[in-house]
Design goal:
Layout lengths: L6 H18 L7 H8 L4 H15 L1 H8 L9 H15 L8 H10 L7 H22 L1
Length: about 140
């Protein structure tokens, strides 16, 4: 059973949770209103853009956790949660790093087919932009 454990993936998750715990301990919560007002996160297009960028820097689940303290301070938190759910999920398609699932699939597929970053990005970028734009328009 231990032979089947993907230790590199396990270390990735451990590191991810350590980074998230560190972010939660920072002063982000005290600067929340400044962030919300200065970047106009009440607008779905703006929130979606920030979520898409952050999702591809950190991965989509950590991005949602970072936005968590900000959303209750927005004028329509329910709308903001829907926007964040849509954009962070769809942003995961932009790059392999956008979602841990992408990393797992690319790694598991490696014995059969090599998927380069640019091959993935050439399909993921237009797909992500188009679906997020449609999502923002539908919200």
């Amino acid at each position: 059973m231990y032979h089947e454990i993907d230790f590199s993936l396990l270390v990735l998750f451990i590191g991810l949770f350590i980074v998230l715990a560190g972010i939660e301990k920072t002063q982000l919560s005290s600067d929340t209103m400044n962030i919300v007002t200065s970047y106009r996160l009440d607008r779905p297009a703006v929130l979606s853009t920030f979520a898409a960028v952050l999702s591809n820097i950190l991965s989509n689940v950590p991005a949602v956790l970072i936005f968590k303290p900000l959303l209750p301070r927005l004028t329509d938190p329910k709308q903001a949660w829907l926007t964040l759910a849509m954009s962070s999920t769809l942003a995961g398609n932009l790059m392999p790093l956008g979602s841990v699932t992408n990393l797992i699939v690319v790694q598991r597929a490696r014995p059969e087919v090599e998927i380069s970053f640019w091959q993935y990005f050439k399909v993921g970028a237009p797909l992500t932009v188009a679906t997020i734009v449609i999502g923002v328009l539908m919200l």
